[in-house]
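Project outcomes to date are best conveyed with an example. Our students and postdoctoral researchers have been running inverse folding experiments weekly, and each run begins with a structure described purely in tokens. The record below, which covers 197 residues, was selected by the lab manager from last quarter's runs and is presented without edits.
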């Protein structure tokens, strides 16, 4: 177990596993958790930025945010599959499209539903979903979702250098070697080198 302040390594999961997580949470009526998982894999944002999203943003075709870490403006085009999930959750929870309340708030009846949850709470919720639905991941957290987004973009763009350059820009990495390591390509090559002997 990592000590406080120590970084823990995470890795992306397969896209079908990510979709399974969302489907299972929806079936179990854990709508806010399902939406958090979907937001992580479809937007590729840091968890701090995800926790600041409002209903009106995620229910639109696109929106712009200022990223907390980089202070850069970023336009998010909302994928149609994500929009289906978000609109279904909004309908089930009686949320209007123009609702400017935060999406990820405390779910318990005694929690302050006007305040967003903390990064620690979000990561606990994500980790619990992985455990509940039997999806194995290396240190499951919001980073797992962000890396899964990155891996999906890379694979859908023919695993090209252009895809790495694009992801490097999206993630705010200084170079593509950082991005390559971030989405697990470097470790994969090392593993393949050992196994190719």
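After processing, the design step wrote out the following sequence:
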């Amino acid at each position: 177990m990592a000590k406080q302040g120590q970084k823990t390594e995470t890795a992306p999961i397969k896209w079908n596993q990510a979709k399974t997580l969302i489907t299972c949470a929806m079936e179990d009526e854990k709508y806010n958790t399902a939406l958090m998982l979907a937001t992580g894999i479809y937007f590729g944002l840091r968890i701090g930025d995800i926790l600041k999203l409002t209903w009106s943003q995620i229910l639109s075709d696109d929106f712009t945010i200022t990223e907390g870490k980089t202070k850069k403006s970023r336009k998010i085009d909302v994928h149609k599959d994500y929009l289906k999930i978000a609109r279904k959750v909004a309908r089930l929870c009686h949320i209007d499209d123009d609702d400017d309340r935060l999406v990820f708030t405390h779910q318990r009846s005694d929690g302050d539903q006007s305040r967003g949850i903390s990064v620690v709470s979000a990561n606990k919720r994500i980790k619990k979903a992985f455990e509940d639905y039997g999806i194995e991941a290396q240190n499951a957290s919001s980073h797992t979702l962000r890396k899964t987004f990155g891996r999906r973009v890379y694979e859908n763009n023919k695993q090209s250098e252009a895809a790495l350059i694009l992801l490097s820009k999206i993630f705010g990495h200084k170079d593509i070697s950082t991005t390559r390591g971030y989405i697990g390509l470097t470790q994969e090559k090392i593993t393949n080198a050992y196994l190719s002997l």
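Residues 4 and 159 are 35 Å apart (CA to CA). The longest helix spans residues 142-156. The training component of this project remains on track.
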